[in-house]
Amino acid sequence: MTATPFVTDASARLPGADIWFALPAGFSPLPTREFMSSGNDGRTPDGEAVLSSLLAASGNSTERQRLAAMLAPVRRMMHVLVETGVIQCSVGLHTDDEGDGRLLLSLFTLAWRRLPWAPRSIMAARMAASAENAVNMELLELPCGPGSLVETHTVAPGSGLGERLLQVSAYVPYPDGERLAILNLATPAVERAEHYRALLREIAFLVSFDTPFSPESDKE
Questions:
Q1: What's the whole-model pTM score?
Q2: Which domains does the chain have, with CATH numbers?
């Protein structure tokens, strides 16, 4: 069996980095500012150009047209999430193997939230209990410590059609007990909630607050 390859982002080795995690295949980093831009300033590509570039290598014009049509709900997801202090974002494109084979689109984001000190297990439980409109929640015992997972369904702002968005959030308290990392997956594919819960749970299990790199590897 061949080991799964990992691509290390340059930010993982920056001085002061305090959280590490891994994303599965199908996720690509999204330049948040460029994506949110209207593209009317003549300098910054608009969201459609950014998203289309992700499939440039496929050469499939039909898929690119479908992705362009999906751009509006993606931007609405971003507007919902950017208010939470997002510091990193990736777009996910995966084939719906259990449906008609269409592309499922999702957004992964990472944000930090500072809170009054509390034991980490209590902090994680409080975050789960305080979630509004939660349809599923669970406590997690992760390699890096306690956490919680919450699934909510929201109406996309500005959709005008009552379009629902699935959000799955993992709350992972930092060891100092004064802040926590919020890992979020958002997608319009509400019918695939179980799969996205499992996906974010796997990502949360890979979270580490200790650098995985040895001093020797940094010299390479």
A1: 0.77
A2: 19-218 (3.40.1000.10)
